[in-house]
From TrEMBL:
<dbReference type="InterPro" id="IPR019396">
    <property type="entry name" value="TM_Fragile-X-F-assoc"/>
</dbReference>
<protein>
    <submittedName>
        <fullName>Transmembrane protein 60-like</fullName>
    </submittedName>
</protein>
<feature type="transmembrane region" description="Helical">
    <location>
        <begin position="108"/>
        <end position="129"/>
    </location>
</feature>
<feature type="transmembrane region" description="Helical">
    <location>
        <begin position="80"/>
        <end position="102"/>
    </location>
</feature>
<dbReference type="Pfam" id="PF10269">
    <property type="entry name" value="Tmemb_185A"/>
</dbReference>
<keyword id="KW-1133">Transmembrane helix</keyword>
<keyword id="KW-0812">Transmembrane</keyword>
<keyword id="KW-0472">Membrane</keyword>
<feature type="transmembrane region" description="Helical">
    <location>
        <begin position="34"/>
        <end position="53"/>
    </location>
</feature>
């Protein structure tokens, strides 16, 4: 799938998600929050499938000898990093839905709900800082 199709799919799912959230918050629907988050679940499913398929493709190229073993290992580690970030986002969304469905007495503390999101943001911040340092000192591996 081309980059333009992936980005259009992502924007479309975000748009549908925001419409669902707006309808739910406005009181026009009384849907379960798990139903409201269906576009996000679809996006996460698509993202996980894409990461897994790209990882399989990377391993296939290792057999052909077109990449070095060090490059293959670094690509697989990066794909595992992306998969971990996606699973942290999904865990945050699931716990958020659980708490939003029972606002009177939330079963999970709000600190527990936002813990995966905080871990996700800290990891992404470290990644951005690492890339900026590599770029500023000319240490790009590509």
């Amino acid at each position: 799938m081309a980059m333009i199709h992936r980005s259009l799919l992502a924007w479309f799912l975000v748009l549908v998600f925001l419409i669902f959230v707006g309808l739910r918050i406005d009181g026009r629907t009384h849907w379960n929050f798990f139903l409201v988050f269906v576009p996000m679940w679809l996006y996460d499913l698509f993202l996980v499938a894409f990461i897994v398929l790209k990882s399989i493709g990377d391993c296939r190229y290792a057999d052909l000898g077109s990449y070095s073993i060090k490059r293959i290992v670094s690509m697989i580690i990066f794909r595992l990093y992306l998969l971990t970030m996606t699973l942290l986002k999904t865990a945050f969304c699931v716990m958020l839905c659980v708490n939003l469905n029972s606002p009177a007495s939330p079963p999970i503390s709000w600190y527990g709900v936002f813990t995966p999101l905080i871990i996700l943001l800290v990891a992404l911040s470290f990644n951005v800082i690492h890339e900026l340092v590599n770029f500023s000192f000319g240490l790009n591996s590509d």
